[in-house]
Amino acid sequence: MTANSFDIALAHVLKHEGGFVDHPADPGGATNMGITRATLARARNRPATATDVRALARPEAASIYRRFYWQPVRADDLPAGLDHAVFDLAVNSGTTRAAKLLQRVLGVAQDGAIGPATLEAARRAVTTDAIRALQRERLAFLQNLATWPVFGRGWRARVAAVEREALALAASAPQAPARALDSAQTQASERPVMTDVKSILASRTVWTNIVGLVSVALAMLGLDVGDVDANRLAEAAAELVAAASFIASTLFRIAATRRLAG
C-alpha cells in the first residue's frame, strides 16, 4: 500500500464502472460511476432519485467509495496490488463478499470482516499468488449468479483486467525496509566473528608440517636437528593456539555482554 493507492485504485474502478447507466436487468437500477441509487441515498442519508444519480459529481463519488468500500475492507492495510483487487471486488460484489473471498484465499476464518488475523495472513502471503487466487474465486462466484448470462462477458473481462492492474501495482510497489534487529540478533552481532583461521592454526597436522619444514630448513643450514621431536613440538604449538583462542573468545564475550548490559 502506498500513499496514493486509493487514488490509483479508484481511477481503475471508475474506468470499469463507466458513467450513468440504467440497465433493466441490473438489480441496482440507475447507476453512475458505479454508485447506485441505494448507495447514494445511504451516503446522503435521504432518498435519492435517478436524476440525483445522474448528477453525481466525481468528488462525491470518490468520498463514497472511500467510506463505503475502501475503508471497510481495510485496503490501507493490505499489500499494494492486493488492496486494489479487494477494493474492486467490494465495489462489484459487496464488502462482505470481498472479505470472505479474501479470507478463503488466505486460509483464515471466513467471517466477512477483515481484522488482524486476515491482515497478518495477507502480509505473510505472496502477494501475486493471493491476487491470482482471489480473481479465480471472484470469477467462480460471478459465474454462479443468475445474471451471468447477461453480464458474464463484461464481468470476465473486468476480472482479467483487475488481475493485470493489481499485479502491475504489486510489481511497482517499493520493497519493504529491512526489519530492525531484535535482541537475539543484536547479541549475535556483538559476538566475535568465528573464522576458519582458528581451526587451521589449532590443527596438529598443520603444525606438524610447519615443524617439519623448519627442521628441513635448519638442516640445510647445517644445524643439527636430529634430537628434535617434531610431533611433540607440533602438539604443543596446536595446544598453545587453542588455549589462546579460547582465552580471546572469552574476553570478547565478556566485553560484548558488558556493552549490551550498558
Largest sheet: 3 strands, antiparallel
Please tell me the CATH architecture of the largest domain by its name: Up-down Bundle
Helix tally equals 13
Number of domains: 2
Describe what you observe in this structure:
The chain is globular. About 9% of the residues have low confidence. With 262 residues, the chain is an all-alpha fold. It has 13 helices and three strands; from the N terminus they run H-E-E-E-H-H-H-H-H-H-H-H-H-H-H-H. Helix 1 crosses helix 5 and helix 5 runs parallel beside helix 8. Strand 2 and strand 3 form a beta hairpin. 68% of the residues lie in helices and 2% in strands. The protein folds into two domains: 168 residues, Chitosanase, subunit A, domain 1, CATH 1.20.141.10; 79 residues, no CATH class. Strands 1-2-3 form a three-stranded antiparallel beta sheet.
Q: In a few lines, what is going on in this structure?
A:
The protein has 262 residues and is mainly α.
Tags for this model:
globular, 3-stranded antiparallel β-sheet, 262 residues, Chitosanase, subunit A, domain 1, single chain, 2 domains
